[in-house]
Amino acid sequence: MCDLYYTPASGPCRVVQMVAHALKVKLNLKPLNLQQKEHLAPEFLKLNPQHTVPTLVDNNFALWESRPIAIYLVEKYAKDDSLYPKNAKQRAVVNQQLYFDMGTLSKRMYDFFYPQLMQNAEADPKKFKELEEAVEFLETSLSKSTYAAGEKLTIADFALAVTTSMCVLTGYDLSKYSNITRWYQLMKDELPGWEINEEGLNVMRQYMK
Ligand code: GSH
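# glutathione complex -> structure
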């Protein structure tokens, strides 16, 4: 069984938990309390010198970064390639969406919201504009396909849906984006393990009070 070092409030951790759930891969969950700096403990730094969660350990093989972990789980444990297709073009589009989520959408979401959540900072209009542009990119891409990377559910949907749920949690109004609204409802209805995401969002809600 794989160990997963995680914290429930972390979106990237929930992506991994949900993908594992979809694949029926059992995870031995090892919670780390980031406030208490458990991720900086020497034993954890030996596993992951970059001290981030999620960190997966599969038989002495330690891997971090949620999207590569999701890819690894599919490649190692899935019965078929549907969540991460082997077809070169289809896989390229999944990768494109995963990189968009990592480098653009989730980055801009954290850049805009985290100073407000963590440091009570004022909303920065420039960062909001940048986030808005990223959300518009997502809207355009979802106007062309049912799911994030084509006509089937893939790991790109897991990653983007968790980021989108963080935008919703922090009060971003998505109602003017008809394609995101349609797809996000589909995710809530269809994404295996959505309840795992809901539980994590509830933990975040407590922090935000
Ligand atoms: N790009 C990484 C991923 O997708 O896994 C982000 C991981 C990340 O930044 N995790 C946060 C963390 O571990 C929690 S959401 N923070 C503690 C630290 O960086 O020291």
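# post-check
The pocket of glutathione is lined by residues 10, 12, 34, 39, 51-54, 65-66 (CB under 6 Å).
Helices lie at 11-23, 42-47, 66-77, 88-119, 125-142, 155-169, 178-190, 194-208.
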